[in-house]
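We treat protein structure as text, and this decision shapes the records that our systems exchange. The tokens are whole numbers drawn from a learned vocabulary of local backbone shapes. Below, we set out a record of this kind in full and without editing:
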Amino acid sequence: MDKKKLKKKVDESDSSDLEQLLEISKKYKNRPRPEKQEIPILKKVKPPEPPPQPPQPTTLPQLSSFKKSESGAYKVPQHLHKNYPHAVRLYLGNLPDNVDKDHLHNYIRQQMESHGAVLDPGDPVIQVQLQPGQKYCFVQFRSIEETEAALQIDTINYQGKPLKFKRVKDYEISPRIEGEREVPKIQPKEPAQKLFVCGLAPDTDNDALANILSEYGNLKSLNVVRDIKNVCKGFAFCEFETDLETQNCVNGLNNKVIGGRLLQVKKNAQLPTPTQDYIIDTITLGEQSAFEAKLQQINQMKVSSVVVINNAVRIKNIEDDYEYNFIVKDLKKEIEKIGRLISMVVPRKKDGYSEGIGKVFVEFENEQFAKIAIILLQNKKYDGREIDIAFYDPRLYADKQY
């Protein structure tokens, strides 16, 4: 094919393509166009709030910001008491073996309620911290006032063991604080009836006697008095849960022959507690009948709640203040083993007395204590001297006529 023909063919092809392009362009211009749409404007979205944070621990206010009581202790509001553990924790020792923590917790709560030591409804005990195998625990109370009330409770008996609340060691070295409310006044419980059982055999077994006594009720405590060789001295002290059980024991066991021995069971409402050391440790087995005879003789006498003890102190010793205080404290400790004292006087010239020098005058809570003192102290030795004891006119004692 020559060049002219080829050029003509190319020109024709280009023309055809151009026409097609123009046709397409025309169609594009005439196409239906969509309606104009407004572009939505996005609103500003508020960012989500951060999740609530746990409350941060607050700093305890300075003790100096609290008011002080007359005793100089800081008065802390009740809602802050738990932040001062030394003021709401107490030590409780002498626990029996295998103590159940929950049982002990409930017992303490019941004792608090029965003594009027609870200020608010509910349990005053927060927790009892008891380590396995230990014979002590720590008790945490919910308020300072109830803690101080627990300290005022006299010895409580738990499963035959005497327990008493004491302060924890760090209390003495910590700042003195107290609650804002008045501490409850403890209501002393009426002492349970205690029984004196005499006529026991020298080989009396504690468990065997406990089994006999338990036939009359729930035995709360039992003390068989023994000598240094662990031989029974012929008598014991016991206590039941209720007065009815006590009376049942007296009715059923008094003058009853057991093991060839005639038992005597006497009711003494306020004998010393069985856990105390008795001053009667010099009574021998052969003196059992004499002991009973003395008790009968005393009942025939004109008794009183006041006794006078002779030959217990040396006059030259009591004029020295140090010696005097030591003697009075020691005598009081020994005599309190017999029963509760109201007062005790040891006259001396230095205090303005002219009569009764060298004597000891003791006022017991009742005549029963005085009777026991007469029996147990007569002809006993104190500081190497044999003492003499007798009843004393309570009117003369009240008038300070010694």
About this structure: The chain has three domains: 64-179, 194-291, 306-398.
